[in-house]
Amino acid sequence: MADGTREEYQYLHGLEREYISELPGRLVSALRLLDSGLGGYKISRYQHSLQTATRAMRDGADTEMVVAALLHDIGDDLSPENHSQVAAAIIRPYVRAEVTWVVNMHGIFQMKYYGHHIDLDPDLREAYRGHKWFDSCDNFCASWDQESFDPDYPTEPIETFEPMLHEVFTRKPFDPAVVGESDIPQSARM
Predict the structure, then answer these.
(1) Which residue, 34, 141, 147, 155, could crosslink 45 as a Cys pair with Cβ 3.0–4.6 Å?
(2) pLDDT beyond 70 at 156
C-alpha cells in the first residue's frame, strides 16, 4: 500500500464510494439469506426480521428504529453468539447512538423471555437498569422482537422497507448531526 500513488488511491476511493452506495441492496440480500439456516422456529429469521420491523413501523417507530428492527438479527448467519454486536456495527455509522445501543444490547435483554429455559441468567439486563436507553431496549424486545415469531401475523414484505434502508444507508456516515459527536470514531474524524 505504501507504494500506491495519489492517482491510484483516488481511483480506488471512487470505486469504494460506488460499492458503498450499493449497501442497501447487499443488506436486503443478506436478510434474504436468513430465510434458510437456523431451524426449529415457526418462521424463518428473515420472516422474523420483517415481522419485527412491521411491528415497529405499525407502532409508529421512526425510520431509524424500524431499520434497526429489520436488521437486528442480520448477524445470525456469520456470528450467532455475537449477532447483536454485528448488527450494531453495521448500523452504527448511520443512526443515532440510542438505536445502536438498543441493537447492541437486544440479545441480553431478550434473555428475559427464555434464559431460564436453557440455564442462562434471564436477568443479565438488570446490570443496565438505570441506563438512559434501558427502557428503549426493553420496549424494543417486549413489543417487537420477542413477539415476532407468529406465523399468522400480517407481515409487510421487504419492499415496504427498502426505501427506509436507502434513506438510512445513503446518509453521510458518522454525521455528527445524526450519530452525535461523541460517537464518531477517530478514524472518521477527517
Answers:
(1) 34
(2) yes
